[in-house]
Amino acid sequence: MKTLTELKQYYESDLLPDLKVLETRRLQIVRKLMYVGLALGIIAAIVIIAILSYARGNLIALLFPLIGGGAIFMLAMKFFSQGYVGDFKTTIIDKIVHFIDQSLNYDPHNCLSESTFRSCEIFQKRPDRYQGDDFVYGKIGKTEIKFSEIHAEYKTESRDSKGRRQTHWHTIFKGMFFMGDFNKDFAGLTVVLPDTAERLFGRLGRKLQSLNFTRGKLISLEDPEFEKLFSVYGDDQIEARYILSTSLMKRIVDFKKKTNRRIYLSFAGSRVFVAISYDRDLFEPRLFNTLLDFAPIQQYFEDLQIAVGIVEDLNLNTRIWSKQ
Amino acid sequence: MKGEQAMWWIPVVIIGVILLFAVIFYNSLIGKKNQVKNVFGTIDALLKKRYDLIPNLISTVKTYMEHERGTLTEITELRARAVSGGLSDNEKVALDNKLSKMMGGIMVAVENYPDLKANQNFLQLQGSLNEIEEQISAARRAYNASVTDYNNAVEMFPTNIMASMMHYETKALFEITEKERQNVNVGELFGS
After folding, report:
1. Could you tell me the residue ranges of all domains in chain B?
2. Which of these, A122, A179, B54, B115, is most buried using a 10 Å CB contact count?
3. Does the interface predicted TM-score (ipTM) exceed 0.90?
4. pLDDT at B189 > cutoff 50
């Protein structure tokens, strides 16, 4: 486990030189964007004045230059920063991944497959849009791991008052998705979901949960702290308890407290899947702030460490049963 | 006249609803009782699996563990008694507790025999034994959960009315003995 002090040293010795190179590129991009922004601003101002003088009272028309200008600006941002983001990831993030563990591999443009994401049955809704990046894979001790950022969404369509079709996108999951070898062999599926009903409704909530038909049987476990935070569904009462031993339940509770985020787990095919919800994008370089600060580097390190640390937090390297 | 006509079907509906609930409660209690029996059956099957591993364990460690000859013989005897059959549920549990304690002692004593610890056969056997112990522990926990569910139905209102009519009584839980807690620790001992 690398410490923050070690990271600081590594940052000063190995990362700063690369960061300085990238910083020059960032400043170039920001300058270009300022010119674009200025040009757009002038055009928008002209259009607004024109609208105000010729289409009196039609204030809605004012939205068009504003929204159009904003959209063009966003496109420009994306266009200019493409190469920059890719290079940042292949230099800086790649280095941080190897700093954490030499044997890990990093691919900025890949992610865990949609079939893997769906196979763990944490999220049962079929995604209409599935994307991800920052794929890390390798072996920590005896445990093979793979993780990446994932953003999965589904869409609903509706018709507004004018009869036009509108598409609305809803997030199924956004955040870090982790898959690892589990230290015991098992055949079925067990899913651990954040528990809302029990917290709100107590016993009645439990009764409602047991009626959930899309999931397997509700498994009530003995650890009260665990039960307050999660509800467990599985197809076999005994196998679920074989997997979720008293010590693993405690470890999961500690892990949830450590990350302080919404987490979901699933055990399928002798593997464990962990989904950690984030609303921000991880591992993206700043555009409008200096790259030379230590704070974002620390953030990247901590985010990566949370995923890699799952192996130790869930004790996956302890192989005292049949599976080796 | 209208009032009299409306009245006659009210008691019929009330009786119908009571009967409906009676059926629901009856079935629910039967289901819970059967679930308890189901899990106990699985525990029985797992215990048998563990008994099957014992002869292999004895033959693997016999040649190494000079000082534990006495314990090993006792374990063989206990096992023979356990598989011979004809034991009541309580006797099975008592026998299993005794056997577990002795086996726990053997696994700890292995620490004194580095040759044995490195033996591939033994390591594989140890893995299987740990796995079976963990599964038995899981089955016991599932049993306790089923019994708690059943006991709740027998004691809580309104299903307790139906339960007393069926002469259902509360069942006892499996005690997770100190030995069992120790079992987990022994596993972690060997884990490093």
Report:
1. 38-191
2. A179
3. no
4. no
